Each structure stands twice: as C-alpha cells, then as structure tokens.
Amino acid sequence: MEADGGGTLLVPGAEAAANVVVGLLGSATIAGAGLGWLIARSRRAAGATALAAFAVAIGPGHNIPLLGGTPAVAKELAILGIVVGVASIVLVQAHVRIAGIPPAQD
C-alpha cells in the first residue's frame, strides 16, 4: 500500500467489484434473510435481518477482502458472525414485540 492510501489491485477492477457485490454484499444479505426466516418464520423478519446484514457488510464487513490472506481475517470473520447473529436476533425479537405477535405454538 502506498503512502497516499492507493495500491494496485491483484485482479481487474470489474472482477474486484463483482466479487465485493456478489461475494460480500450478496452473501451477507442472503445469510441475514435466512436467519430472520429461521428465527421468526416471516417475510418481514427475513427482510429486516437481510437489511441489517447488508448494512454490516457495507460497514465493517468491507474489511474482509482487505484482510484476506492475513492472520487478522479469522478474527474479523468471528466479529462479523457475532454482530450479524446478535443483530438478527435483536431485530426479529423487536419486530415480534412491536407487532404484538404471539409466540408460535408447536
């Protein structure tokens, strides 16, 4: 990395952008939607957790491609997994309480 923050990509720019959009943002959004559906069994909860996961991926999650191949990547993945999981549970439970949805009876 150069002193001005610039650097050279190891792959073409279009490929790097596609990897970030599909590999990071897309997979995070799908994983968030899946967790929301598993927790509350509603499309609205799936949408809320998908949005939360997308926001996390744009925020601290964008560091994953930058840290790939370094010892720090495992720590970053663990942090992101915990943040997305906790955010998913909190958002779904808040939705259930606000909407007054009774607990599911199996």
Tell me what the structure shows:
There is one protein chain. The chain is mainly α and 106 residues long. The chain is 73% helix and 0% strand. The chain contains four helices and no strands. It has helices at residues 13-40, 43-58, 63-67, 72-99. The radius of gyration is 17 Å and the shape is elongated. The N and C termini lie far apart (56 Å).
Question: What tags apply to this protein structure?
Answer:
106 residues; 73% helix; 4 helices; mainly alpha
Provide the fold topology.
Layout: H1 13-40, H2 43-58, H3 63-67, H4 72-99
Helix pairs in contact: 1-2, 1-4, 2-4
Q: What is shown here, in short?
A:
The protein is mainly α and 106 residues long. Helices cover 73% and strands 0% of the residues.
Strand segment tally: 0
Class based on secondary structure composition and strand pairing? mainly alpha
Rg for CA atoms: 17 Å
β-strand percent reads under 5%
SSE string, helix = H, strand = E?
HHHH
Task: Give the overall silhouette.
Answer: elongated
Averaged pLDDT? 78
- Low-confidence regions: none
Number of helices: 4
| Distance linking N and C termini | 56 Å
Bin the helical content.
Answer: over 70%
